[in-house]
Structures are given as structure tokens and as C-alpha cells.
Design goal:
Blueprint lengths: L2 H18 L5 H20 L1 H12 L3 H29 L1 H19 L5 H18 L2 H11 L4 H30 L1 H22 L27 H15 L3 H15 L2 H14 L4 H26 L4 H21 L4 H12 L6 H12 L3 H30 L3 H18 L13
Helix pairs in contact: 2-7, 2-8, 2-9, 3-4, 3-8, 3-12, 4-5, 4-6, 4-7, 4-10, 4-17, 5-6, 5-9, 7-8, 7-17, 8-9, 8-13, 8-16, 10-17, 11-16, 11-17, 11-18, 12-13, 12-17, 13-15, 13-16, 14-15, 14-16, 14-18, 16-17, 17-18
Length: 435
């Protein structure tokens, strides 16, 4: 029996046992996806504690290091639409395994880097490509394939895993870095990646039909999945989806607001918050603890956002999310950076970290139907382009003006603009996809 056959036997038997207890196997797949996205997010968030150690060890300046990490954020987004096509063609399980292998390779290689171009190669290209294959598109694909009901809740949980992984790991990574060096922190991330890889190979399945099930909550037999098609058709499908989606004003509003979402989260706070606090005399471990608080409140906020997205108009949810995030970032620039002031910021900002994702996915699904994962891949690319601009821009501000505050204030103003723009979206039922 091959390893693949053994894995299918395990999942089929587990699905049968869970069915006898009234539990759908989709929750196991969602759990495997949760772990994968959590670990991937830990790798994405690790640069938040690497900035100062890399400066100290190699003498690289903040702008140069930020440039390397910005490449990773660009690829994290631009690979998304093609990741959706790869998942449609090769399967979710296989692509998740390849992504985790790339992450492990990039992190292991960084143990031995000595030149700035090594950072660009390993953290910019290898880690960027690996994280891009398991970006939000993975969660959107699993949620739409495995769940006919509770999609908003599932997307909220999977989104929360991404943001929580980016932030909750940081105190432990910061403590390991302070006590044993940054390589020990990356060793922990590498171990978590190996655990996720084993879980994916054993439990992840591409579709419910692989083990004889319907999606959770489905009442009728779903249509057969489309045939894989040729490799050229697979590579062209994201571009065709972009061509068709770009004719819709809804796409551009979602793309633009998600650009601002990325600029005000991953690229700015996740990458530079620890360094910002260091400028005001806070230890890296303390600042990472604040990020962990943001992550904890984000888990509550994002899961709650998924629940709300199943019940309320997504446009008005996004109006409040972007508006409150903008106000919290503006507040931060005027705070005294005391523990009390930072705690207030962490609570309000944390509840809104990526609460924007479930209603954005819902708006995209309502407008673009079965092409949602491809179109959302492009919308998520906007998110990561915004993150890359903020990652570089904040580093540039710190290098040239000796302060991060202009970047944080600008991000707050952009969020207020996004809150006003999102109400222009007009939800409509998607037309059937072209053959």
C-alpha cells in the first residue's frame, strides 16, 4: 500500500466514524487548513522580530531589510490568483504540501545566509512563493468546496488563524530571539511547519466527493468538478478571470479597499510595530506581547465577523471595520506609548485586524460566483501590494525621517477613505461562469 492509499484509508475511516456521531468530515479538513494557515502565518509574521537582530548582526539598514521583506509580501499576494488555479488543477492537498516544503526550505536556508541578496532570495522569493500558495485563497477554496452552509463562520475561523498565527507566535519568537538568538526562533517555526505537513498529508482531502460525501449542509447532489484541462488553460484561467472581473466596478472597489487593508495591517503593524515601540523604549518582548494581544482580540473579532457576515449587509460591516481601524491608527500616533495607551490600541485595533476578510469574500462570492477563488486571489493580491508598499514606506520613513509616525498616520487616513468607498459596492447575484 502506498503512502497516498494509506492516507485515504485513514481519512475514509475517520469520516465514517465521525458521521456516526453526526460530525461532518469538512470540519477535519477545516481544522487541517486552520493549522496550515496558522503555521504559514507564523512564518509571515516572523520578520517582525527579525528586523533589529539582522541589523545588529549584519549591519544592514532598515530600508534594505524592509525591501527584502516587501518582496515576500508582493509574492504572497501575486501568487494568490495562480494558487487558486493550481488548486483547481492539481488539488488542494498537493499544493499545501508543496507550499509547506518551500517554507521549510526558505527558513532552513536562512540559518546560513551572510549577504543581503541571500535575504532577498530566501525571504523574498522562496518564502514569498511558499506563503503565496497558502494565502487566503486556500481558506476561501476550502470554505466554498466543503461547506454549503456556515461558510461565513468557517471563513472567519480560517482568516483568524492567519492573523492569530502572525501575531500570537511573536512573543515566543521574541523571547527565543532575546535568549538564544534569532536562529532558535526560526527553528521553532520550522518544527511547526513539519507538524502541519504531516497533518495535511494524513487528513487533507481535495473535495467531499473524494470520500463519498456532500458538502456540509448540501441538500442536493453537487455538479461534477470541472475537468483539469490543459496546463496552458490552467495558467490562463486567472488572467481570464481578471479580464472579466476588471470590467466590474465592484472588483476595483474591493481591490482598492483591500490594498488599504494590507497597508494598514501586514505591511505596517506586523512588520514595524516592534521596532516602533523600541523607538519609545519598550523591549521587543513587551512589544511582541502587545501584538499577541492584538492577535487574541483579532481571533474574537474575525470569527465574530464571519458570523455577522452570514446575517448582515457586508458593505456596512466593512464601513465600520475600516472606519474604526483608521481611528485606532490615528490614535496611536498621538498616544504616549505607555502600556495603558498601547493596551487600548491593541484591543480596538485587534478586534478589527482582519475582520474585513469574511465580508469581502462574501461580496466577491455574491458578485463572481464559482470564479470566486480566482477573483478573490486578485483582490488578495491588492492586499499584499498594499502591504509591500507599507512595509517599504514605513522603513523609508524610519530611515529618512527617524520616525515611523507619518506612515502610521497616513494608514489611518487611508482606512477612513476605504470606509467611505466600500458603500459604493452594489451586491448582485453572479452570472454563470463562462465555459
Amino acid at each position: 500500500m502506498t503512502a497516498r492509499d494509506a492516507a485515504f484509508t485513514i481519512s475514509s475511516r475517520l469520516a465514517a466514524r465521525l458521521a456516526r456521531r453526526g460530525i461532518h468530515y469538512g470540519w477535519v479538513v477545516a481544522g487541517s487548513t486552520f493549522l496550515t494557515m496558522l503555521v504559514t502565518a507564523g512564518a509571515v509574521g516572523a520578520p517582525g522580530v527579525l528586523m533589529a537582530p539582522l541589523e545588529a548582526e549584519y549591519g544592514w539598514d532598515t530600508a534594505d531589510i524592509s525591501s527584502g521583506f516587501a518582496i515576500r509580501l508582493v509574492l504572497f499576494g501575486l501568487i494568490g490568483p495562480f494558487a487558486a488555479a493550481f488548486m483547481n488543477h492539481f488539488g488542494v492537498r498537493r499544493m499545501a504540501g508543496i507550499a509547506l516544503s518551500l517554507l521549510a526550505t526558505g527558513i532552513l536556508g536562512s540559518f546560513y545566509m551572510t549577504q543581503l541578496w541571500h535575504l532577498f532570495l530566501l525571504w523574498g522569493l522562496v518564502v514569498g512563493f511558499g506563503t503565496g500558495l497558502t494565502a487566503m485563497v486556500l481558506g476561501a477554496t476550502v470554505a466554498t468546496r466543503w461547506f454549503a452552509q456556515r461558510r461565513g463562520l468557517v471563513m472567519g475561523l480560517l482568516t483568524a488563524s492567519t492573523a492569530t498565527g502572525q501575531l500570537v507566535f511573536l512573543p515566543l519568537l521574541a523571547q527565543l530571539t532575546a535568549s538564544f538568538g534569532w536562529r532558535s526562533a526560526l527553528g521553532l517555526v520550522l518544527g511547526m511547519i513539519l507538524l502541519a505537513a504531516v497533518t495535511v498529508l494524513a487528513l487533507m482531502r481535495d473535495r467531499p466527493s473524494d470520500i463519498g460525501l456532500l458538502p456540509y449542509g448540501a441538500t442536493g447532489q453537487p455538479g461534477a468538478p470541472p475537468p483539469p484541462g490543459t496546463l496552458s488553460a490552467m495558467l490562463a484561467s486567472p488572467l481570464l478571470a481578471l479580464r472579466d472581473a476588471s470590467r466590474s466596478a465592484t472588483f476595483w472597489v474591493l481591490f482598492g479597499t483591500f490594498f488599504i487593508c494590507g497597508a494598514s495591517t501586514n505591511g505596517l503593524v506586523q512588520t514595524h510595530f516592534v521596532s516602533l515601540c523600541g523607538d519609545y523604549g519598550l523591549a521587543a518582548v513587551t512589544a511582541a506581547g502587545m501584538l499577541a494581544m492584538i492577535g487574541a482580540f483579532d481571533f474574537v473579532g474575525t470569527v465574530g465577523s464571519g458570523w455577522l457576515s452570514d446575517r448582515f449587509d457586508s458593505r456596512w460591516l466593512l464601513f465600520w471595520y475600516y472606519g474604526l481601524r483608521g481611528l485606532s491608527l490615528i490614535y496611536l500616533t498621538y498616544s504616549d506609548f505607555s502600556l495603558y495607551g498601547l493596551s487600548i490600541f491593541s484591543v480596538f485595533y485587534g478586534l478589527d485586524w482582519v475582520a474585513t476578510v469574511p465580508p469581502t469574500v462574501k461580496l466577491a462570492a455574491d458578485r463572481f460566483g464559482e470564479r470566486t477563488n480566482l477573483v478573490f486571489g486578485w483582490i488578495f493580491a491588492g492586499h499584499q501590494l498594499g502591504a509591500a508598499c507599507a512595509a517599504y514606506g514605513a522603513g523609508f520613513s524610519r530611515t529618512v525621517y527617524q520616525t515611523y509616525l507619518p506612515a502610521f498616520f497616513t494608514a489611518g487616513i487611508l482606512c477612513l477613505m476605504a470606509a467611505l468607498a466600500i458603500v459604493a459596492v452594489r451586491e448582485s447575484r453572479a452570472a454563470p461562469a463562462r465555459p
